[in-house]
Design a protein that fits this description.
With about 190 residues, this protein is of the alpha/beta class. The chain contains 4 helices and 10 strands, in the order αβββββββαββαβα. A hairpin with a 5-residue loop joins strand 2 and strand 3.
């Protein structure tokens, strides 16, 4: 599983620089969170951008949501230094990539037709693509894990690619090797 491979690499290489971190798996529609000592704090399903892709259009953060075409509604892949801040309406979000307006926040349920809660609770990641690019997590996970983890400090959010290899996105990560049964560290 790519999320665990990245988490193992982060822990072994100290790529998180002693900061808390999260790994977001867009394909598996999951997030795992670790504190600054690399202790696993939790995992949860996520909702991600409706369109597959590993980049965000640079000007997307300057547009109104209604002006972002579906083709640009992607969740970018990469390593991001994330911090809390305010978003539209004065709500707090974890800014993952501020220039492109990508944040991680509690699920938004104002548009009932999108069925975001049902999508989060479905047994398959096939229906977890619905956002403009932001990462939505369950409200309880946001309150109990994300907010305390990043309160008053920055952290790292690793978003896995879906169209490129891991070591193409995370350049310091060694190229993949053949898996060896029983070697994956469990948290």
């Amino acid at each position: 599983n790519d999320a665990w491979q990245v988490a193992d690499w982060v822990i072994a290489s100290h790529d998180n620089n002693g900061m808390p971190f999260m790994v977001v798996d867009k394909i598996g529609a999951q997030v795992v969170a670790f504190d600054s000592t690399t202790k696993l704090l939790g995992a949860a399903p996520v909702l991600v951008g409706i369109t597959r892709g590993d980049h965000s259009e640079p000007e997307a953060g300057d547009r109104e949501l209604s002006d972002i075409p579906v083709s640009d509604r992607t969740t970018p892949a990469g390593r991001f230094v994330a911090t809390f801040g305010h978003a539209a309406g004065g709500r707090d979000v974890l800014w993952v990539d501020y220039p492109t307006a990508i944040s991680l926040h509690a699920v938004i349920t104002t548009n009932k037709k999108q069925r975001r809660l049902q999508r989060l609770n479905s047994p398959t990641p096939a229906d977890n693509r619905i956002t403009f690019g932001c990462i939505n997590v369950p409200t309880a996970f946001y309150a109990k894990v994300v907010k305390p983890l990043f309160k008053g400090k920055s952290g790292i959010v690793y978003i896995l690619p879906e169209t490129r290899a891991l070591n193409e996105v995370f350049l310091a990560m060694p190229p993949p090797t053949a898996p060896t049964v029983g070697t994956q560290q469990r948290y």
